[in-house]
Amino acid sequence: MLLTVHNKWDENERLAIMTSEIDSADLLSRASQLIDLAKAAGADQADAVVVRSRSRSVSVRLGKVEGTEASESDDFSLRVFVGQKVASVSANPGFDMKILAERAVAMAKVSPEDPFACLADEADLARSYPDLELYDPTDISTDALREASLEMEQAALDVQGVTNSSGAGASSGMGGLVLVTSHGFSGSYMASRFGRSVSVIAGEGTKMERDYDFDSRLYAADLDDPKLIGRRAGERTVKRVNPRQVDTGSNITVVFDPRIARGFVGHIAGAINGASVARKTSFLRDKMGQQVLKAGLSITDDPLIVRGSSSRPFDGEGVSGERMVMIEDGVLNHWFLSTSTARELGLVTNGRGVRGGTAVSPASTNLALEPGDISPEDLIKSIGNGFYITELIGQGVNMITGEYSRGATGFWIENGELAYPVSEVTIASNLKDMFMRLTPANDIDRKFGVASPTIAIEGMTLAGR
């Protein structure tokens, strides 16, 4: 059961929040008070979470500013347990904590029992955790964001063959988590995020093509130069002009560009998510301890990478995770687990619980398909003829059966080289087969939360003309 309460901030509170982005002591104190009030109202157990966010962004198109946005919030949520009954409430700053706690407990008392809902076991709670250097205090002004956006767009427009712009943008922000539980956990952390992106068009009339490029980092100084991002976007777009169709065929080797391969690795993560296994919505639900990838391949997940894009010192339940080899030498070793999901499966959490509003569900952290030992150039040469994909269209992936069918654009591989652009084709197979026929290159870039090198998958069906 869930209740949401919204209140306007008074100006003093707004000013205090804006000027105390690093200091979470007040939020920890208020979360602790919520716990005490919930227990006084009759809760057996409780946890309180504050999700803090700040962001600023600028978007431009054709040399003019289209939008400037700024936002800030501190969202409180309280989860209470009365026996095996649970309820959650959420509110913005300014709420009456006593009333909120009493409402939560009253709601829990009339809720149905949930045999799996619980706090993390006390023995699993993090007693100490490392500084993962997730926060960069650099303050990028609106003017600086605008200049970076304009510079990116102009660099893309300067590429010969680019005819129009879909826009460019730059952003900076931070997010943080404060967590207090009734059985002894109290902690907080924050992470910054900076981004740049641009999208442009090449060609004219019905032969226009669009593409983009972007960068996203925890530290502002690590961002790619705006001109470089713009130039890459322009060059990618121009290469797509005048695409051809290709003949329908079977047993085609398909190569996924790294930014497309990251999405494919995300399918693997979804298939080994404990929540999907518990709901019986994963085609790998009966494959624990069995080979699910080609021998020699591994999938790792590590929440403790210093400056990692998806690193966290503890999860949404106060449990510290550790680096895990989810799939090793092709064999499935682990599910992603939160406490309640682990209990449902008769297992123990591995610190992958993530807060989504007032709920906790398992998810990956810094996930990686570990690279192979062949360069992408040599991988393409070894194929001879095939299809190199730079964009996928549609959502034709059935995670229950593994059936896979998606529209695609990219380049035809001929005699080991990218020969010409291709569009209006569909690729199809089953994820079970695709996993067993996957070959990774060695060009992994670990700056993203999901990392993958270029990958080749044999034996796919291609529907063309």
TrEMBL record:
Residues spanning the membrane: none
Annotated GO CC locations: cytosol
Pfam families: PmbA_TldD_1st (PF01523), PmbA_TldD_2nd (PF19290), PmbA_TldD_3rd (PF19289)
Molecular function as annotated in GO: metallopeptidase activity
Domain Metalloprotease TldD/E C-terminal: 251-464
Keyword Oxidoreductase among UniProt keywords: no
Entry annotated with the keyword Transmembrane: no
GO biological process: proteolysis
PANTHER family reported in the protein's UniProt record: METALLOPROTEASE PMBA
Family to which the UniProt record says this protein belongs: Belongs to the peptidase U62 family.
Name used for this protein in its record: Putative Zn-dependent protease, pmbA-like protein
